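Worked example 4.2. Below are the chains of a multi-component assembly; read each line carefully before continuing.
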Amino acid sequence: WPRELSGVGHPRPSDGGSSSGSESSKDSSRCSTPVLDAERHERLREKMRRRQDSGDRWFSLEFFPPRTANAAVNLISRFDRMGAGGPLFIDVTWHPAGDPGSDKETSSMIIANTAVNYCGLETILHMTCCNQTKDDITGHLQKAKRLGLKNIMALRGDPAGEEWEEEVDGFNYAVDLVKHIRNEFDDYFDICVAGYPKGHPEAESYEADLKHLKEKVLAGADFIITQLFFRSETFLKFMKDCQAIGITCPIIPGIFPIQGYHSLRQLVKLSKLEVPQEIKDVIEPIKDNDAAIRNYGIELAVSMCRELLDSGVVHGLHFYTLNREVATTEVLKRLGLWKEDPRRPLPWAVSAHPKRRVEDVRPIFWASRPKSYIYRTQEWDDFPNGRWGNSSSPAFGELKDYYLFYLKSKSPREELLKMWGEELTGEESVFEVFTCYITGEPNKNGHKVTCMPWNDDPLATETNLLKEQLEKVNRRGILTINSQPNINGKPSTDPIVGWGPSGGYVFQKAYLEFFTSSEIVTALLKVLKKYESRVNYHIVNVKGQNITNAPDLQPNAVTWGIFPGREIIQPTVVDPVSFLSWKDEAFALWIEQWAKLYEEESPSRMIIQYIHDNYYLVNLVDNDFPLENCLWQVVDDTFELLNSPQPEPSEVLR
Amino acid sequence: WPRELSGVGHPRPSDGGSSSGSESSKDSSRCSTPVLDAERHERLREKMRRRQDSGDRWFSLEFFPPRTANAAVNLISRFDRMGAGGPLFIDVTWHPAGDPGSDKETSSMIIANTAVNYCGLETILHMTCCNQTKDDITGHLQKAKRLGLKNIMALRGDPAGEEWEEEVDGFNYAVDLVKHIRNEFDDYFDICVAGYPKGHPEAESYEADLKHLKEKVLAGADFIITQLFFRSETFLKFMKDCQAIGITCPIIPGIFPIQGYHSLRQLVKLSKLEVPQEIKDVIEPIKDNDAAIRNYGIELAVSMCRELLDSGVVHGLHFYTLNREVATTEVLKRLGLWKEDPRRPLPWAVSAHPKRRVEDVRPIFWASRPKSYIYRTQEWDDFPNGRWGNSSSPAFGELKDYYLFYLKSKSPREELLKMWGEELTGEESVFEVFTCYITGEPNKNGHKVTCMPWNDDPLATETNLLKEQLEKVNRRGILTINSQPNINGKPSTDPIVGWGPSGGYVFQKAYLEFFTSSEIVTALLKVLKKYESRVNYHIVNVKGQNITNAPDLQPNAVTWGIFPGREIIQPTVVDPVSFLSWKDEAFALWIEQWAKLYEEESPSRMIIQYIHDNYYLVNLVDNDFPLENCLWQVVDDTFELLNSPQPEPSEVLR
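Applying the procedure described above to all two chains together yields the following structure tokens:
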């Protein structure tokens, strides 16, 4: 949470600012149409204003950077889960002691980068300035801009020692940082500053502190988030006092749901805030009962938030989550602010990087690995919109160490072994793992298979539509890793397959992607001749031997939507060229995530290695989306052919 | 027809040539996907090779520039009609006496430009070189390139007088022109040269003439078209002789169906060819019977063409049409080469200009006036493909004099008056004209209305699907000028609404565009409130007062197609910005084409002027394409509202 201790400063002309270099300037390129989601292209301060104007209420979530890489993986999952509730933004605190601007997986910079780029969340990066050189700070800001971060919370930070003194021309107060950002980066960043409803503990007076706050706003801050407080009156008085001295920007109350006795005590020590007696009276007797304290904290936060919202002057609430999920989510649900399953603007997770704001087409292959797709395409100068195009020959990033971090399963090795088998006895035991993942049934040791190397989450609801057929084919060695049913015009509001604005219709071509043996591929290719004009296929092995009937290596649109008053959106394609980049990743996952669970030279490892070396990766598209999906028939025919009496040798040669 | 008289020249290295600046070099832009029609992006010589490889037989058509602007209008209509039969290319002869490189409507350059750009025909422009300076010729070639012409027939041309002498360093022979084109324009143009099956009359010998031909090919010609001949043996021997001396490029026989006694005589005089006795014997007795001669000519041409095609060495036939339609079309039909209604690659007429090769999206407004659309967008640097985009704000060319030429009706003033009324008695007589155009019934004076200012052709087959409803609304003053039914996934091979490759599905949103009075617009707007989420509308008057519910002025896709192994194609949009450019044209046509038929200040003219000044142009889109078209209900509701008892004044004010 905000830990800034003071701030004084100078006025700036007006809020309008120059817009040179501003990200909000309209792109004039013919193709760059913000089609589906206007909000995606707005600045945070504009989104805030739009929400206020429309009377919508919103919330935001504060997190701090984790200490370990494992904790980072978990925090990112938390971003995804809490992001699903629809926060207007999240913010990531700045820890000067933790090398916050570095490239470490746990740095503030990289965590914020992940939130924006991989989780698609509007994000504010905190930044403190005291005890730092101008060049350091400029360097951090340039890096933030380069990574696609668009919002900075400008703070002073804690002085290094007791004997802190102001430096001449140095960054002594948050206002200096605000001015520096505006001087060096013009209007590029939205800037947030901290407010102290009880006055800053080190300020000469409450009034003097208000004056410092106004100086920060005049210097260029766009809105204010307050330090936590325990009574709604505290905030409402503060807000009134701010308005009285002419602070007109949004002021967002910081809400701290009490989650435990120790975290509260630590907080009180750091913030020098006093906990009201009536709260102490409740908490002291139950101090060893975590659940009781948390429930009390939730009640307290809900009732204070209700008072704030009922006042009519509060439009958004900012939550200090302490990186925990339960209490904040519960408060938000009780307040009705948590929007479970918000409408998907596109069928895949959109990145919030400004460079990607026009992106609306992706290959289907990364459907379960959107972060990997975003990572591997981060160096692209522009992103496909409207059409993928077959001449794009996109340069996908290499599979590097860093990439393995984001690919690392959330489950530890022991758990993966329980799911995928402590010991494999043959290809059939691999088939069994795939089958259990599809059915949701426990494996023979009683463990459910909730993730696979190609998919870190349980089966998508949409895939459930195909469950029965998928189970049947996985049992027989068609090891599916991606699939979608055909859809011939369902409403865009359909809870399972819908996406985009309401009033539209969504469509899909049936898609099936799987690993399988060369024996099955041989039979499959014979069968596919019968479906030549209807089914497109791409078949490739780890060495890159590639068989396809795609015309001119053109992409095939497999998901599209028709909306009132819009152009056609086709967010997912099967692109033959990208498939070869995906192939490298898909095969590598056998080894990196599965084979390496076992000892070198162990039979289990050799089984996975054998599959990796000899199986083919296949994708099939049924182009005739209005008819019944023929891909199951293709697979059935293949098995039938395999089961039929062996042909004469002469027949094989044909 | 080719009138070159001689040619000698020098060798060039090989046919491969350098490809710098070549139009065949692949465009590397992400969006530039040649999606639907690979052939559209090939060079003529490649198309020819592909046809030969696939065993397809083809034909081409030769025309000469007309003498008058009226004749030019008719010739362009002929291009459209004969283009529908599927020629591989047409060629336009070069008339040195007719200022062939000028901007006159009747110049060779402008006629060829029209064929390529407005009629979408692959076109060869003839060019002669004798008695011309290098600079003149370079200027012509540069202009041809600028206009999008890609093929040149390089000829010597007739010397100016009897006393012609070779000029040192001048252009004395066709081969000089071939070399000049290759020197100055590298491999940009495909070059054709003339061959003489009987040897050139001025050549020293048949053998010497063959040598000259070989020199032209070595200098860089891509293929040969022959002078006409009367017996298939003549051509087949010539072809054998060419191959014997190492001419390997395609040699296309020039076919001249005899169409009349006088044209044959004139031809014989010019070409110094001798008509075989057996032909003279047939023709002389019937020389005053045009029909008999033409029938004989057709028979003769058909049997000669059959012999040529049966020889197995002839893949394409080139026809000297003499700008006439009947004989050539008949020969082609009998040979089975005429492909009536060839598959439409897109629902609108594609331009053959190389700059437009990626174009696959257009506003619907110009559906009946594609030439006007191409004319008004000719200065664009790039053309929409995949998506129209709302930031394109395209600059449409002004309505100029030149434009009026292409807009001029094919029907003369007297005929238009018969169709549209010698004398109008009120707005109702205008309604009557619109209604007769829709129904195809004669007007009260017994004349059918076969064209309108907004549509120079009879009603499209597709519009016929809506005939009954259109009749009803036109009678009541909803004066429709454009419409399409909704289509929810018909096969792309559907004879009426289909387009694009087979195996696909085409879709449409229902569209209706009409002029109507402000009284009807007022009622319509009230009715549209009920359809707010379903129907998009744009309503504008001549002054530009504009009412719309289009979200963010975004375009609305109203025609799209889904094809096997392709991205989505959406060739037609309703674009709010372009609509305002179309509006100027649509309103101007009332005056330019209709009002001006009448005397100034005449009541008829004032009626049209009144409509022009006071009516609104309206377009409606029903976004719910899977449901029954609701636009007729919208119109019915509007009339019902108008017929209901007058509201209280207070209600009007609301």
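Take a moment to check your reading of the output against the notes. The CA atoms of residues 485 and 510 of chain B lie 5 Å apart. The radius of gyration of chain B is 28 Å.
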